[in-house]
Write a structure and sequence with these properties.
The chain is an alpha/beta fold. The protein is about 40% helix and about 20% strand. α1 crosses α10, α4 runs parallel beside α6 and α9 crosses α11. Bound molecules: alpha-L-arabinofuranose.
Length: about 325
Protein backbone atom coordinates (compact mmCIF):
# COMPACT_ATOMS: atom_id res chain seq x y z
CA UNK A 1 0.00 0.00 0.00
CA UNK A 2 1.47 3.37 -0.99
CA UNK A 3 -0.19 6.62 0.10
CA UNK A 4 0.74 10.24 -0.52
CA UNK A 5 -0.19 12.55 2.35
CA UNK A 6 -0.12 15.84 0.49
CA UNK A 7 1.06 17.48 -2.70
CA UNK A 8 1.86 15.68 -5.95
CA UNK A 9 4.66 13.36 -7.09
CA UNK A 10 7.98 15.03 -7.79
CA UNK A 11 11.13 14.00 -9.69
CA UNK A 12 13.28 16.58 -8.00
CA UNK A 13 16.37 15.31 -6.12
CA UNK A 14 16.60 18.37 -3.88
CA UNK A 15 13.12 19.51 -2.97
CA UNK A 16 9.93 20.30 -4.88
CA UNK A 17 9.45 23.46 -7.00
CA UNK A 18 8.03 25.23 -3.98
CA UNK A 19 11.07 24.21 -1.89
CA UNK A 20 9.13 21.65 0.13
CA UNK A 21 10.58 18.25 1.00
CA UNK A 22 9.53 14.84 -0.28
CA UNK A 23 9.90 12.10 2.32
CA UNK A 24 9.58 8.37 1.61
CA UNK A 25 8.40 6.62 4.76
CA UNK A 26 8.52 2.80 4.99
CA UNK A 27 6.30 1.76 7.89
CA UNK A 28 6.42 -1.67 9.57
CA UNK A 29 2.71 -2.40 9.23
CA UNK A 30 -0.49 -1.92 11.21
CA UNK A 31 0.10 -4.65 13.78
CA UNK A 32 -0.80 -2.75 16.95
CA UNK A 33 -2.58 0.26 18.43
CA UNK A 34 0.87 1.78 18.91
CA UNK A 35 1.62 1.45 15.19
CA UNK A 36 -1.71 3.05 14.20
CA UNK A 37 -0.94 6.02 16.46
CA UNK A 38 2.59 6.26 15.06
CA UNK A 39 1.36 6.26 11.44
CA UNK A 40 -1.21 8.98 12.23
CA UNK A 41 1.46 11.08 13.92
CA UNK A 42 3.83 10.77 10.93
CA UNK A 43 1.11 11.56 8.36
CA UNK A 44 -0.33 14.51 10.28
CA UNK A 45 3.10 15.96 11.06
CA UNK A 46 4.18 15.68 7.41
CA UNK A 47 1.09 17.57 6.35
CA UNK A 48 1.64 20.25 9.01
CA UNK A 49 5.29 20.65 7.95
CA UNK A 50 4.24 20.96 4.29
CA UNK A 51 6.16 17.80 3.31
CA UNK A 52 5.07 15.55 0.49
CA UNK A 53 4.87 12.11 2.14
CA UNK A 54 5.15 8.87 0.21
CA UNK A 55 3.96 6.25 2.68
CA UNK A 56 4.18 2.46 2.45
CA UNK A 57 2.93 -0.27 4.80
CA UNK A 58 5.23 -3.34 4.73
CA UNK A 59 2.74 -5.64 6.47
CA UNK A 60 5.54 -6.70 8.84
CA UNK A 61 7.68 -8.11 6.01
CA UNK A 62 11.28 -6.99 5.55
CA UNK A 63 11.22 -7.67 1.80
CA UNK A 64 8.31 -5.23 1.41
CA UNK A 65 10.21 -2.54 3.29
CA UNK A 66 13.29 -3.09 1.13
CA UNK A 67 11.13 -2.81 -2.02
CA UNK A 68 9.58 0.42 -0.73
CA UNK A 69 13.00 1.93 0.06
CA UNK A 70 14.26 0.98 -3.44
CA UNK A 71 11.20 2.62 -4.96
CA UNK A 72 11.86 5.80 -2.94
CA UNK A 73 15.46 5.79 -4.21
CA UNK A 74 14.20 5.47 -7.80
CA UNK A 75 11.75 8.30 -7.24
CA UNK A 76 14.64 10.45 -5.93
CA UNK A 77 12.89 11.53 -2.74
CA UNK A 78 14.75 14.08 -0.59
CA UNK A 79 14.87 11.92 2.51
CA UNK A 80 13.92 8.37 3.49
CA UNK A 81 12.64 7.50 6.95
CA UNK A 82 11.82 4.01 8.10
CA UNK A 83 11.11 1.86 11.11
CA UNK A 84 12.94 -1.42 10.42
CA UNK A 85 10.78 -4.46 11.03
CA UNK A 86 13.86 -6.47 12.13
CA UNK A 87 17.36 -5.33 13.10
CA UNK A 88 19.55 -7.12 10.57
CA UNK A 89 19.87 -7.28 6.77
CA UNK A 90 19.75 -3.59 5.82
CA UNK A 91 23.29 -2.78 4.70
CA UNK A 92 22.79 -3.44 0.96
CA UNK A 93 19.72 -1.23 0.52
CA UNK A 94 21.15 1.48 2.78
CA UNK A 95 24.32 1.46 0.64
CA UNK A 96 22.09 2.04 -2.40
CA UNK A 97 20.49 5.06 -0.71
CA UNK A 98 23.92 6.38 0.24
CA UNK A 99 25.19 6.01 -3.35
CA UNK A 100 22.11 7.91 -4.54
CA UNK A 101 22.94 10.62 -1.93
CA UNK A 102 19.56 10.25 -0.25
CA UNK A 103 19.81 10.64 3.53
CA UNK A 104 18.12 8.03 5.71
CA UNK A 105 16.59 8.54 9.16
CA UNK A 106 15.81 5.57 11.39
CA UNK A 107 12.67 6.09 13.39
CA UNK A 108 11.24 3.98 16.24
CA UNK A 109 13.53 0.96 15.65
CA UNK A 110 17.27 0.65 15.05
CA UNK A 111 19.28 -1.45 12.60
CA UNK A 112 22.16 -3.68 13.68
CA UNK A 113 24.75 -2.32 11.25
CA UNK A 114 28.40 -1.61 12.01
CA UNK A 115 28.45 1.16 9.40
CA UNK A 116 26.71 4.07 11.11
CA UNK A 117 27.40 6.29 8.09
CA UNK A 118 24.46 4.52 6.40
CA UNK A 119 21.96 6.66 8.30
CA UNK A 120 21.90 10.20 9.68
CA UNK A 121 20.22 9.67 13.01
CA UNK A 122 17.99 7.34 15.00
CA UNK A 123 14.89 8.76 16.69
CA UNK A 124 13.08 6.44 19.09
CA UNK A 125 12.74 4.84 22.50
CA UNK A 126 15.32 3.16 24.69
CA UNK A 127 13.80 -0.34 24.52
CA UNK A 128 16.32 -1.85 26.95
CA UNK A 129 15.29 0.73 29.54
CA UNK A 130 11.62 -0.12 28.92
CA UNK A 131 12.32 -3.80 29.68
CA UNK A 132 14.30 -2.82 32.77
CA UNK A 133 11.46 -0.65 34.07
CA UNK A 134 9.04 -3.58 33.69
CA UNK A 135 11.41 -5.97 35.50
CA UNK A 136 12.25 -3.51 38.27
CA UNK A 137 8.58 -2.89 39.01
CA UNK A 138 7.97 -6.63 39.15
CA UNK A 139 10.84 -7.10 41.63
CA UNK A 140 9.65 -4.15 43.76
CA UNK A 141 6.14 -5.60 43.85
CA UNK A 142 7.20 -9.24 44.21
CA UNK A 143 4.91 -9.89 47.19
CA UNK A 144 1.80 -8.90 45.26
CA UNK A 145 3.00 -10.63 42.06
CA UNK A 146 3.42 -14.00 43.81
CA UNK A 147 -0.20 -14.88 43.13
CA UNK A 148 -0.17 -18.39 44.61
CA UNK A 149 2.02 -17.27 47.52
CA UNK A 150 4.48 -20.16 47.09
CA UNK A 151 7.57 -17.95 47.10
CA UNK A 152 8.29 -18.48 43.38
CA UNK A 153 7.12 -16.01 40.73
CA UNK A 154 6.65 -17.82 37.42
CA UNK A 155 6.68 -15.38 34.50
CA UNK A 156 5.63 -16.15 30.93
CA UNK A 157 6.89 -13.72 28.31
CA UNK A 158 5.03 -12.73 25.15
CA UNK A 159 7.79 -11.53 22.85
CA UNK A 160 7.43 -9.07 20.00
CA UNK A 161 8.37 -9.89 16.40
CA UNK A 162 11.40 -12.20 16.28
CA UNK A 163 14.52 -10.21 15.44
CA UNK A 164 12.88 -6.80 16.00
CA UNK A 165 14.80 -4.33 18.15
CA UNK A 166 12.00 -3.82 20.71
CA UNK A 167 11.60 -7.60 21.17
CA UNK A 168 15.33 -8.22 21.62
CA UNK A 169 15.93 -5.17 23.83
CA UNK A 170 12.86 -5.47 26.06
CA UNK A 171 13.70 -9.12 26.73
CA UNK A 172 17.29 -8.12 27.54
CA UNK A 173 16.30 -5.25 29.84
CA UNK A 174 13.70 -7.35 31.65
CA UNK A 175 16.13 -10.27 32.13
CA UNK A 176 18.81 -7.99 33.58
CA UNK A 177 16.35 -6.38 36.02
CA UNK A 178 15.14 -9.72 37.43
CA UNK A 179 18.56 -11.44 37.32
CA UNK A 180 19.44 -10.87 40.97
CA UNK A 181 15.99 -11.88 42.22
CA UNK A 182 16.06 -15.66 42.71
CA UNK A 183 12.31 -15.92 43.26
CA UNK A 184 11.49 -14.55 39.77
CA UNK A 185 11.92 -16.81 36.76
CA UNK A 186 10.85 -16.62 33.10
CA UNK A 187 9.47 -20.14 32.66
CA UNK A 188 8.34 -19.77 29.02
CA UNK A 189 8.88 -17.20 26.28
CA UNK A 190 7.47 -17.13 22.76
CA UNK A 191 6.70 -14.58 20.05
CA UNK A 192 3.19 -13.20 19.61
CA UNK A 193 4.42 -10.92 16.79
CA UNK A 194 3.18 -7.75 18.56
CA UNK A 195 -0.45 -8.59 17.64
CA UNK A 196 -3.51 -9.14 19.81
CA UNK A 197 -4.31 -12.39 18.04
CA UNK A 198 -0.71 -13.59 18.41
CA UNK A 199 -0.74 -12.78 22.15
CA UNK A 200 -4.02 -14.64 22.61
CA UNK A 201 -2.83 -17.77 20.79
CA UNK A 202 0.51 -17.96 22.62
CA UNK A 203 -1.21 -17.40 25.98
CA UNK A 204 -3.64 -20.23 25.22
CA UNK A 205 -0.62 -22.48 24.65
CA UNK A 206 1.07 -21.32 27.87
CA UNK A 207 -2.10 -21.93 29.88
CA UNK A 208 -2.10 -25.49 28.60
CA UNK A 209 1.61 -26.17 29.05
CA UNK A 210 2.71 -24.19 32.14
CA UNK A 211 1.68 -24.82 35.74
CA UNK A 212 1.36 -21.98 38.26
CA UNK A 213 1.77 -18.91 36.02
CA UNK A 214 1.90 -15.81 38.24
CA UNK A 215 2.81 -13.09 35.75
CA UNK A 216 2.63 -12.34 32.02
CA UNK A 217 5.22 -9.92 30.68
CA UNK A 218 3.98 -8.85 27.23
CA UNK A 219 6.26 -6.77 25.01
CA UNK A 220 3.28 -4.65 24.00
CA UNK A 221 -0.28 -3.81 25.08
CA UNK A 222 -1.90 -5.61 22.16
CA UNK A 223 -0.37 -8.97 23.11
CA UNK A 224 -1.31 -8.30 26.75
CA UNK A 225 -4.91 -7.62 25.66
CA UNK A 226 -4.87 -10.89 23.69
CA UNK A 227 -3.58 -12.66 26.82
CA UNK A 228 -6.49 -11.20 28.81
CA UNK A 229 -8.93 -12.79 26.33
CA UNK A 230 -7.18 -16.18 26.68
CA UNK A 231 -7.09 -15.96 30.50
CA UNK A 232 -10.79 -15.06 30.69
CA UNK A 233 -11.70 -17.83 28.23
CA UNK A 234 -9.90 -20.25 30.56
CA UNK A 235 -12.20 -19.15 33.42
CA UNK A 236 -9.48 -17.16 35.23
CA UNK A 237 -9.46 -13.51 36.28
CA UNK A 238 -6.69 -11.34 34.75
CA UNK A 239 -5.18 -9.04 37.38
CA UNK A 240 -6.14 -11.44 40.17
CA UNK A 241 -5.30 -15.03 39.17
CA UNK A 242 -2.58 -13.93 36.75
CA UNK A 243 -0.90 -10.50 36.82
CA UNK A 244 0.00 -8.73 33.55
CA UNK A 245 2.75 -6.21 32.80
CA UNK A 246 2.94 -4.63 29.32
CA UNK A 247 4.69 -1.92 27.29
CA UNK A 248 3.15 0.92 25.19
CA UNK A 249 0.30 2.61 27.12
CA UNK A 250 -2.13 2.94 24.22
CA UNK A 251 -5.72 3.76 25.15
CA UNK A 252 -7.01 0.14 25.18
CA UNK A 253 -4.09 -0.92 27.35
CA UNK A 254 -4.63 2.01 29.71
CA UNK A 255 -8.34 1.15 29.98
CA UNK A 256 -7.45 -2.43 30.96
CA UNK A 257 -4.92 -1.06 33.47
CA UNK A 258 -7.48 1.31 35.04
CA UNK A 259 -9.93 -1.62 35.21
CA UNK A 260 -7.40 -3.74 37.12
CA UNK A 261 -6.85 -6.37 34.41
CA UNK A 262 -3.30 -5.16 33.75
CA UNK A 263 -1.05 -4.34 36.74
CA UNK A 264 1.60 -2.02 35.26
CA UNK A 265 2.45 -0.44 31.88
CA UNK A 266 5.75 1.00 30.70
CA UNK A 267 5.11 3.77 28.20
CA UNK A 268 6.52 3.68 24.65
CA UNK A 269 5.72 6.95 22.90
CA UNK A 270 4.44 6.58 19.29
CA UNK A 271 4.05 10.33 18.64
CA UNK A 272 7.34 10.66 16.78
CA UNK A 273 6.03 12.65 13.81
CA UNK A 274 6.89 16.23 14.87
CA UNK A 275 10.49 15.36 15.87
CA UNK A 276 10.92 13.30 12.71
CA UNK A 277 9.91 16.19 10.42
CA UNK A 278 12.16 18.54 12.34
CA UNK A 279 15.15 16.19 11.95
CA UNK A 280 14.35 15.61 8.26
CA UNK A 281 14.27 19.35 7.57
CA UNK A 282 17.66 19.77 9.24
CA UNK A 283 19.19 16.81 7.40
CA UNK A 284 17.98 18.07 4.01
CA UNK A 285 19.24 21.58 4.87
CA UNK A 286 22.67 20.09 5.63
CA UNK A 287 22.52 20.96 9.33
CA UNK A 288 24.08 18.73 12.00
CA UNK A 289 21.73 16.41 13.87
CA UNK A 290 22.46 14.24 16.92
CA UNK A 291 23.31 10.60 16.16
CA UNK A 292 20.62 9.47 18.60
CA UNK A 293 17.43 11.15 19.80
CA UNK A 294 15.79 9.27 22.68
CA UNK A 295 12.07 9.67 23.29
CA UNK A 296 10.91 10.71 26.77
CA UNK A 297 8.68 8.15 28.43
CA UNK A 298 7.05 7.33 31.75
CA UNK A 299 5.31 4.39 33.46
CA UNK A 300 1.74 3.91 34.70
CA UNK A 301 0.24 2.18 37.72
CA UNK A 302 -3.48 1.37 37.86
CA UNK A 303 -4.21 4.57 39.82
CA UNK A 304 -2.22 6.73 37.40
CA UNK A 305 -4.00 5.18 34.42
CA UNK A 306 -7.40 5.96 35.92
CA UNK A 307 -6.34 9.61 36.33
CA UNK A 308 -5.15 10.18 32.75
CA UNK A 309 -7.35 7.79 30.74
CA UNK A 310 -9.98 10.33 29.69
CA UNK A 311 -7.33 12.61 28.13
CA UNK A 312 -5.25 9.87 26.49
CA UNK A 313 -4.85 10.86 22.81
CA UNK A 314 -4.24 7.40 21.36
O1 LIG B 1 8.58 -0.60 17.77
C1 LIG B 1 7.61 -0.25 18.69
C2 LIG B 1 6.75 -1.45 18.98
O2 LIG B 1 6.17 -1.91 17.77
C3 LIG B 1 5.56 -1.20 19.88
O3 LIG B 1 5.84 -1.42 21.22
C4 LIG B 1 4.61 -2.23 19.40
O4 LIG B 1 3.31 -2.08 19.86
C5 LIG B 1 4.80 -2.08 17.95
O5 LIG B 1 4.21 -3.03 17.18
Amino acid sequence: MVLTACGSDSDSASGNDDGSITMGFAQVGAESGWRTANTKSVQESAEEAGFELKFSDAQQKQENQIKAIRSYIQQKVDVIAFSPVVETGWDAVLQEAKRAKIPVILTDRAVDSEDTSLYETFLGSDFILEGEKAGEWLVENAGEMDVDGNGAINVVQLEGTTGAAPALDRAEGFASAIEAEDTVEVVASQTGDFTRDGGKKVMETFLGSEKGIDVVFAHNDDMGLGAIEAIEAAGLEPGKDIKIITVDAVKDGMAALAEGKISFIVECNPLLGPQLMDLAQKVVDGEDVPERVVTEETTFTQEQAAEVLADRQY
